[in-house]
Amino acid sequence: MPSPEGRRPTDWERNTAGLADASWITADMAYRRRALAEVGGFDERFRRAYREDADIALRVMAAGHRLVRGARTVTHPVRPAGFWVSVKTQAGNADDVLMRRLHGPGWRRRAGEGPGRFRRHLLTTASGVLAAAAYGAGARRVAFPAFVAWAGLTAEFAAARVLPGPRTPEEVTRMLVTSVAIPPAATWHRLRGLLTHARAGAWYGNRAVLFDRDDTIVHDVPYNGDPARVEPVRGARKALDRLRRRGVRIGVVSNQSGVARGLITRADVRRVNDRIDELLGPIDVWEICPHGPDDRCSCRKPRPGLVTRAARRLDVDPSACVVIGDIGADMRAAEAAGAHGVLVPTGRTRPEEVDDAPEVAPDLRAAVARALALLAEGRSR
Ligand SMILES: [Mg+2]
Description:
single chain; 15 helices; Rossmann fold; 381 residues
């Protein structure tokens, strides 16, 4: 960031210079395409160049990737800006609301950001509004101290911006005027963000939902080796997409003893799974047990092998996984691996399996909602 010659930098120049030490700014940043695809790319709810880069960095790192600093440097000159630029940039306060919704209250620290001035802006605005309202209502004894508080906070803010700068009449005027306008602008944009992003859900990152295959995401065709007979259960695509939008990783854990019994080949299973991938969108990890009940393997559900292997491949702790299945063996495999289980019974699920299940949901949609709630509990721990 080239600094001006022979004078101290203006407020705008100092702000731009801050980018020189910022982590992950997109001015010179390269991501592997696969990592971007994995987290779903940039979040278009960030409408301006402000927090979109910190957001994607936090999501990519939550997915288990690392960001490393390279050796290349770029020159980033300060772009010309008008009188009101420092007021206009307050629009970023709305993006801060979305950051908090997505990444929780600790997002500033994790993004390498300082605490910001918003609380003081809010206090300044509240004092000013109180002073004006009390004055209008004739309550001078309230109006005067409120006005003094507003004036003091505003003066402190203006001084903090004027003192390090060039102190030319033009810069001083600009700092005084905008220091009055910034606190209400920041408050307004924060409010706007709260309204716009009221329904934005948390980003889950290093969490996963592992689905049983047959009679959970596709209708069971016993020992099916024919992709043409794959038929998803109702709402499966929507339920999986909902997880993808929230950053939850998706796996399938399935017993296919038809392989051990010689009824189907591994290649048949793969073809069927490819067809499921095609119909239900990309599944991050497939774990299949090809063994029979007497093979004493460690993977056949109700044993935990498929769940622990899928979790390891996704780089997610089993306790941050929910297993959704239609029978007791799915629930027991989840429990044995240290994951949560949610049962979606079908007509073939036995009543005692329903009674023993840790959680029961009427359909896949409800099961995914329950899974998100369980993962959110783990997230706040
Ligand atoms: Mg099943």
